[in-house]
């Protein structure tokens, strides 16, 4: 009877240790998977930084009273900025691009701004 109890305890101990080892390995796999999941959350933080960059550009444009930023659209992705919309005169096209380039975090500016024509004029 003592031999059977020793064997049962020994087998139970082996099963317990194997199950703990299996849990540890699955936990490592889960943490590795969550490491890949961190890459999935990177676009979220990327979107946040893109939005923050857009806000900074709009704020910089707002400091220049001669520029009406109401018709200017700013898109940002990873530091690359695209400006679209209209301005009132040709000189403002380059001025808006220069202002955007001066904002920290901007790596490039694609300027698609055009000059708006007055409704009644030619």
From TrEMBL:
Pfam families: BON. Residues 29-50 are annotated as: Disordered. Transmembrane segments: none annotated. InterPro entries: BON_dom (IPR007055), Lipoprotein_DolP (IPR051686), Transpt-assoc_nodulatn_dom_bac (IPR014004). Residues 29-42 have a biased composition (Low complexity). Residues 1-24 form the signal peptide. It comes from the Bacteria. Keywords: Signal. The keyword Signal applies. Residues 49-117 form the BON domain. This is BON domain-containing protein. It comes from Paraburkholderia sejongensis.
